[in-house]
Amino acid sequence: MWCFREAGKSLGRDLVKIFIAIDDTDNRESIGTGRLTRMLAEEMACRGMIAQGRVTRHQLLVHPDIPYTSHNSSACIDAEMIGAELHELARYAVSFLENHFHEGANPGLCIACRDAVPPVLFSFGYRAQREVIPLDEAKRLTEELDAFTWFGGETGQGCIGAMSAVGLRSTNNDGRYIGLEGIREIRGMMTAGEIISRTAIDRIVTLAGDILSDEEIVDTQDWIRPVLKQGLVTLEVIPVNGHWRAPHKKTSKKRKQ
């Protein structure tokens, strides 16, 4: 199902900054929402539709009443649209999701202007992290939004996660980067200055908020995933044996039984 409300100038050629969010509600055979979102960002960039495609992962509530496969998260592309109309970009995104559809999944998509995210999506995203939102409520909301929404599969459950990701990403204080320039090439022990120079990370800070000097040593554990904090790409670190490292490391996915 499609829902696309006209919003005047924000849907015309003047729109250049957008959020594109996905919740694939993947099954055991699918590649997962995060990877799928990164693939979409890469394909749109290759086709000249967007100039930038940084991707953040947004954690939602894990609850027995919410269908999910591993972690119940959605993802959002922060992009600059350069070579396409918004309608064209939306059609391509829907076609991409349909081409990567797996039986049993219920994907959702939400696209909104970065500077005009409907305020109701802020609270919607926060609620999705704390409570079970009824599907019929989410679908009613899509009819009121000045944004593009699409939901597929049997139930369209993914529209909840997709709209939540747009709302949460727009706060500039939620999300972990899973698609960002340079972060997947970083390996081993490096200085903070090297990490900053080789990635799009804005700052490396302690959990207390102190900024590391360029000479400080960081154990990357071959896996750094900065977060969005106060509008800045932020790598948080903790002290370990005379150097620093991120408080978390990569873990294998545990599928919901």
Q: What's the layout of helices and strands?
A:
Elements: E1 2-4, E2 17-23, H1 33-46, E3 50-59, E4 73-81, H2 86-99, E5 108-113, H3 119-128, H4 135-142, E6 148-151, H5 158-169, E7 176-179, E8 189-191, H6 192-198, E9 203-206, E10 217-219, E11 227-229, E12 232-240, E13 243-245
Parallel strand pairs: 9-12, 10-13
Antiparallel strand pairs: 1-6, 2-4, 2-5, 3-4, 3-7, 5-6, 8-10, 11-12, 12-13
Note down, in words, how this protein is organized:
Helix 3 crosses helix 5 (158-169). This protein starts with a strand and ends in a 12-residue tail after the last strand. The chain is α+β, with helices and mostly antiparallel strands and 257 residues long. It has a seven-stranded antiparallel beta sheet, sandwiched between helices. Strands 8, 9, 10, 11, 12 and 13 form a six-stranded mixed beta sheet that branches. The protein is 25% helix and 26% strand. The longest helix is centred in the N-terminal third of the chain and has 14 residues, at 33-46. Strand 11 (227-229) and strand 12 form a beta hairpin. It has helices spanning 33-46, 86-99, 119-128, 135-142, 158-169, 192-198, and strands at residues 2-4, 17-23, 50-59, 73-81, 108-113, 148-151, 176-179, 189-191, 203-206, 217-219, 227-229, 232-240, 243-245.
